[in-house]
UniProtKB/TrEMBL annotation, chain A:
Pfam families cross-referenced by the UniProt entry: ECR1_N, KH_6, S1_RRP4
Record's subcellular location: Cytoplasm; Nucleus, Nucleolus
The organism of origin for this protein: Pelusios castaneus (West African mud turtle)
Keyword match Transmembrane helix: no
Gene3D superfamilies: 2.40.50.100, Nucleic acid-binding proteins
Name of this protein: Exosome complex component RRP4
TrEMBL record, chain B:
Transmembrane intervals: none
Superkingdom to which the source organism belongs: Eukaryota
Species annotation: Pelusios castaneus (West African mud turtle)
Regions of compositional bias (Basic residues) in chain numbering: 430-442
Keyword flag rRNA processing: yes
Residue ranges constituting the Exoribonuclease phosphorolytic domain according to the UniProt record: 32-163, 189-253
Record's protein name: Exosome complex component RRP45
Gene Ontology cellular component annotations, sorted alphabetically: cytoplasmic exosome (RNase complex); nuclear exosome (RNase complex); nucleolus
From TrEMBL, chain C:
Protein name: Exosome complex component RRP41
Subunit structure: Component of the RNA exosome core complex (Exo-9), composed of EXOSC1, EXOSC2, EXOSC3, EXOSC4, EXOSC5, EXOSC6, EXOSC7, EXOSC8 and EXOSC9; within the complex interacts with EXOSC2, EXOSC7 and EXOSC9. The catalytically inactive RNA exosome core complex (Exo-9) associates with the catalytic subunit EXOSC10/RRP6. Exo-9 may associate with DIS3 to form the nucleolar exosome complex, or DIS3L to form the cytoplasmic exosome complex.
Molecular function (Gene Ontology), one example: RNA binding
Pfam family name, one: RNase_PH
Amino acid sequence: MAAMELRLPVPRKVVSQGLARGSDKHLVAPGDTITTDTGYMRGHGTYMGDEKLVASVAGAVERVNKLICVKALKTRYNGEVGDIVVGRITEVQQKRWKVETNARLDSVLLLSSMNLPGGELRRRSAEDELAMRDYLQEGDLISAEVQAVFSDGAVSLHTRSLKYGKLGQGVLVQVSPSLVKRQKTHFHDLPCGASVILGNNGFIWIYPTPEQKDEEAGGFVTNLEPVPLHDREVISRLRNCILALVAQKLMLYDTSILYCYEASLPHQIKDILKPEVMQEIVLETRHRLLELEG
Amino acid sequence: MKETPLSNCERRFLLRAIEERKRLDGRQSYDYRNVRISFGADYGCCIVELGRTKVLGQVSCELVSPKLNRATEGILFFNLELSPMASPAFEPGRQSELLVKLNRLLERCLRNSKCIDTESLCVVAGVKVWQIRVDLHLLNHDGNIIDAASIAAIVALCHFRRPDVSVQGDEVTLYTPEERDPVPLSIHHMPICVSFAFFQQGTYLLVDPSEREERVMDGLLVIAMNKHREICTIQSSGGIMLLKDQVLRCSKITGVKVAEITELIQKALENDRKVRKEGGKFGFAESIPNQKISAFKMERAPVDTNDVEEQAEEIITKADPPSEVFAKPILQTPGTAQIGEGIENSWGDLEESEREEQEEDNSDDATTSGVQKMETEEISGVSKTKKEADTIILSDSEEEVVVVLEPEETRKKTRTHTSAKQENSSSKKTFNKKRKKKRTTH
Amino acid sequence: MAGLELLSDEGYRVDGRRAGELRKVRARMGVFAQADGSAYIEQGNTKVLAVVYGPHEMRGSRSKALHDRALVNCQYSMATFSTGERKRRPHGDRKSSEMTLHLKQTFEAAILTQLYPRSQIDIYVQVLQADGGNYCASVNAATLATIDAGIPMRDYVCASSAGFIEDTPLADLNYVEEAAGGPQVALALLPKSDQIALLEMNSRLHEDHLDQVIEAAIKACKDIYTVLDQVVREHVHEVTTLLGE
């Protein structure tokens, strides 16, 4: 039985040659002039230099009526109101927690935006402030929704719903925010036996589907019962599939993850991350998605 | 000690002055400050003063074994120290970015340009060479350390004399200064650094920035040149964007400045040599000027007074006549008096009631009111005569005692602090606010 | 190395290049999946790896955060195996500190830091093999890494070195030419606007030749810009096609 696998380097194959996509997009690099017409409004990724609109990031130009912006290939998370995020508590401050969400400034979770256990609605007192650490400590993972965006770009979160709150047992996968597709809902229960939260900030949480759906605790009590082996296998397979999709730069949403999972079933879980297996699985996923689109 | 940040109004003032091509000390854009070079009693010790920036340079030498890959060359070692003596912003011990930058610049300017003949420092190849060590200490920081330091380094090196050595076969004899005169180092050329400070994204350029100017500059360009117009080092720092023509222009200016400074250095060295030969007094004690006033005589500065009178009359006719009514001093309490009212409050948005007042008596002030305002500002705090105060009402805010100010005539409306006595009283305010000056009608 | 002529009579340099020719440049973006941006560049035998993290919340002392701009934090380090002799380089030594300062200065000028108040952008550069032009290759690698991270910049920052031998300006010096001790210029340029972000010169050069040497360096920077631009466009094209939107 092989204890370790070694690979020799081989020249990379450019994958995009196999895909027939029309390159009708206007691709720019920093310093390129987009237009000299001054009638346009300047959006993200551009700056005005010498009466010309110049691109400041590398990406595709998007034009909506009079607004021109350049969407970069990879950015940090930029919060929008209503997004679902998965974050990690980094600091406990007075009356609020600082949450790391892969954005350019740490997000803020105010004590008043957090649901108290039991779901009571009351003004937060000094005792609540002192008991903050009992609710959430540094290192805890939470799921929350963006309530507002501050002027400097920092995001204010809230967990005012029973589906948000501290996360229990599961696996976290960190990807780039631009790979997570925007959908109506980001909480999915996959038929393969696990559930997944696709945070808009690129943090993806895979966890075993809970038996009962009702949680009166509002998500504070973590369920530490041992997870059965079958569930764990499903979760690790899902995680490897997500990594494979990310490596091949496919957008992540519930359908693509599910198809990838199904395409990977013939392989062993640890083989999924091998380059040729990854390519095969993702290619199959692409085909199935194309068929789905019709 | 953490450096005090420069206030925004000072920064604005300096930048505006530079835009109008004015510098705080009255220099032109391309003028250097006065360079004074004085030598110590020992050879190799000198103090260079560039305006108020002072650098002390000391050269010393030692016989050591050479580096393995350069067996026939001597070793040069440069070190610049920034101690808290120069400026409280420098902290002892910590190697800051500025220190690294200055040291590297000095090293590149003096070592890489090969101004000293290192081959001549070799005594016995592979066994013994001279190690020349140049130590520079900044004694006072008033801007442009690098120029002063480079001048100090090169002057000290030129001034230094090393002990004479003779080699006979295997025997090396080191002569003391008494036995044989010490020998000067062989210096090929003298590189001098010239700094250019850029402002407003490279639009304005100043030579030899002072400390204040350094704080508001966008970036610095240092060009080191010798008098043969060979460039030894160029270094741009501070994140400014330069254009090629700017660099070329600066190099031309550098040529001119370096020629002047080299001449100065030669003269200073020559003076010192003469003094030492003639047996006169030399050393630092002699060079520090006596800072005492020893004469009751003022230097006459010629002033061109040709058209002063005409200009003065012009100004007088244009200006408004001074007002007839002068505000009389009002004594509030023993020790506090008031003349007129203060100038306009510049703290920001006014409260409702104040805004009404302001709208009612908005008037245009003429230039002469400016003069009067100054007087009222100065005098309003000074005590005049000792009379009894009318009333003192204390506010219950946590700040100091609040005094009620009652205007002399009811026509003058003032913004007051407390009490319903005033017709225009508003909410309680603290004593710190300036009062608005109202002009009485002519 | 006496007797080694840096420029032969026929106009060939030590490695067979012409006076104004650059070394072969190979670059790749997105080498690390974990970092926000990463790039690897090979200029002849000089190999440099650059990694960019950010913009992110200030780590360490909050007091250093600038209220209106992002703080650019650089670190330049050379691997112990990068030079001919294995040399352990402590991080605080003067040469790396100077290079770090220069990198920081260059990128503070090029990155639009006003968009990210109170954040920090980290740029880490590691030289894997040093064969002359370390600073220039570092700047080029860091430019690619910053573009890969999606951090807005005014323009590319391309850097190149230039020297002057026997009245001829040479572009892109290798180690042998640098060690010979002649005048060398390192220039970092924003190609579209011809603005010089950093200019550094060592050793003696007569003022009259300055124009020629700077001109040669500017031309070399523009040549590097064409190569880097091509790499970026290919990468962007590939990723956009894969994303398929």
